[in-house]
Specification:
The chain is α/β, with parallel strands linked by helices. It has two domains: 139 residues, 3-Layer(aba) Sandwich (Rossmann fold), CATH 3.40.50; 230 residues, Dihydrodipicolinate Reductase, domain 2, CATH 3.30.360. The protein is 34% helix and 21% strand. It is built from 14 helices and 17 strands. The chain has a nine-stranded mixed beta sheet with strand order 16-15-14-13-7-12-11-8-17, sandwiched between helices. The longest helix is centred in the middle third of the chain and has 26 residues. The protein binds 6-O-phosphono-beta-D-glucopyranose (BG6). 6-O-phosphono-beta-D-glucopyranose binds next to loops.
């Protein structure tokens, strides 16, 4: 692939699905509005549903109004966007409809083709095969694979193997939308452009790291999907491990995609594999029971139509990294649905001061912390000790927050999917996962999933709207530490 052409046909498989309406169409709409989509580019929805193009355009409009922030939608912008919209009915379980797609795509052969597969992963191989058999894969064709890429290493390898029969690795864009979040990208800027952190960023000065991705939403509405995956496969194997990689990786030799991915893979390969005893002592899994969320009563995960399930809606664990930089520095990670509040943050906790000269003046020294918050608001805070101003005889100290946020110069914060879709259009794979990354992540995660399948850890319960099970508090407390928000 030599050309970087923004002129493209963006072909959205699963284009009438939840993700497409909630995230992908709004992202494409914004890209169009902000002038990132070439005038003649097309957004071709592939769906099983039979309807006219006019009806499809009306449906997209209705969904955009539903999912876009109120001030983002205007009729005028939509008119421009609507010109790009096309529906092609394809049933990818029977392969009916590809001839029509071929006809549509062959109208313009000189443009890039981006096939975005927002479908269940079971269809990935079949769709790629059908694209190939219908001669729809050109040199400038890319394929975007939505997560989850399998349920374990084996199934992930099967999916990737099949896709690789038809596409080269450099044409495959495996998406993890967390990498498209601005604050996540800022982790690299923070680490690798500030001398301040160069020497502090290791086991010499860091005591431990915490990564939390808590959501207040439950699994309702997506129960069927979610129940096949659970917190470990849905969030930890991908989003949280990617965050961990960015915190733990060595400086890449350049910002080139492969240089960055090389460093991330090294981290994944040095995650200490968990033995069955480790799974018992260092991991927690739990399901939420009925409770209240943002002032409203909500059902438990298993409530409703006689549901039975061994799927976790919360997972927490201690991870050790076996390399020189992180020797002896645990990473505690946790993620759950129906938690008290939506909150995603990374806390780097520095070691305790070797000696305090303030102790006999009645002031204790809190350990310094760097807190990187991704959600609900993005922020970076460095927690430092400071003298309480005044004439008191004793030197009293307090913890203060140094805000490291960049001043907001942008009119609107773009969504992670906008960044990632634009990167695919520009053929820049930096923020996408390479095959070896995905496999290394599964290889590590499988040990935990196997232990859970063998019931070496009981399934705990937590009330919806709380901070998760007490076992997660004990997990970190057994090492003499506590979660940042406790
Ligand atoms: C998705 C998961 O990948 O990420 C969802 O499948 C989860 O279960 C979502 O809700 C969270 O994304 P964000 O950007 O809202 O934190």
């Amino acid at each position: 692939m030599t050309r970087k052409n923004n002129l493209c046909d963006f072909i959205l498989f699963g284009g009438h699905g939840d993700l497409a309406f909630r995230k992908l169409m709004p992202a494409l709409f914004h890209l169009c509005k902000d002038g990132y989509l070439e005038e003649d580019s097309r957004v071709i929805t592939i769906s099983r549903r039979e309807m006219s193009n006019e009806e499809h355009i009306e449906l997209v409009k209705e969904k955009l109004i539903q999912f876009l922030p109120e001030d983002s939608f205007t009729e005028e912008d939509f008119k421009r966007f609507a010109k790009k919209l096309l529906l092609v009915t394809v049933d990818f379980s029977t392969n009916e409809g590809y001839a029509k797609l071929q006809e549509v795509l062959n109208e313009f052969e000189d443009r890039d083709r981006i096939n975005y597969l927002s479908t269940a992963p079971d269809f990935f191989g079949g769709i790629c095969q059908a694209l190939s058999e219908n001669k729809l894969i050109t040199e400038n064709t890319r394929v975007v694979l939505e997560k989850p890429l399998g349920r374990d290493l084996k199934s992930s390898q099967e999916i990737n193997k099949k896709v690789l029969e038809y596409f080269q690795e450099n044409q495959i864009y495996r998406i993890d939308h967390y990498l498209g979040k601005d604050t996540v990208q800022n982790i690299m800027a923070l680490r690798f452009s500030n001398r301040l952190f160069v020497h502090l960023w290791s086991s010499n000065h860091i005591d431990h790291v915490q990564i939390t991705v808590a959501e207040n939403v439950g699994a309702e509405g997506r129960w069927g999907y979610y129940n096949d995956y659970g917190a470990m496969r849905d969030m930890i194997q991908n989003h949280l491990l990617q965050l961990l990689c960015l915190i733990a990786m060595e400086p890449p030799c350049s910002l080139d995609a492969n240089d960055i991915r090389d460093e991330k893979v090294k981290v994944l390969k040095t995650l200490r594999p968990l033995t069955s005893a480790d799974v018992a002592n260092k991991t927690v899994r739990a399901q939420y029971t009925a409770g209240s969320s943002i002032g409203e009563s909500v059902p438990g995960y298993l409530d409703g139509d006689t549901k039975e399930s061994d799927t976790e809606t919360f997972a927490a664990m201690r991870i050790d990294i076996d390399n020189w930089r992180w020797n002896g520095v645990p990473f505690y990670i946790r993620s759950g649905k129906r938690m008290q509040r939506r909150n995603s943050e990374i806390v780097i906790q520095f070691k305790t001061m070797p000696h305090s000269i303030f102790a006999n003046k009645g002031s204790s020294i809190e350990d310094n912390k760097l807190v990187i918050t991704l959600q609900p608001e993005e922020s970076i805070e460095l927690k430092l000790m400071n003298k309480i101003p005044g004439l008191s005889e004793n030197m009293k100290l307090q913890e203060v927050d140094l805000q490291l946020n960049a001043p907001h110069t942008l009119k609107r914060k773009s969504d992670a999917y906008e960044r990632l879709i634009l990167d695919v259009i520009r053929a820049n794979p930096t923020l996408f996962m390479r095959l070896d990354e995905v496999e290394a992540a599964w290889r590590w995660a499988d040990k935990i999933l196997d232990g859970w399948a063998d019931h070496v850890v009981p399934m705990k319960k937590y009330t919806a709207g709380t901070d998760g099970p007490t076992a997660a508090v004990q997990l970190i407390a057994q090492d003499g530490r506590s979660w940042h928000d406790e």
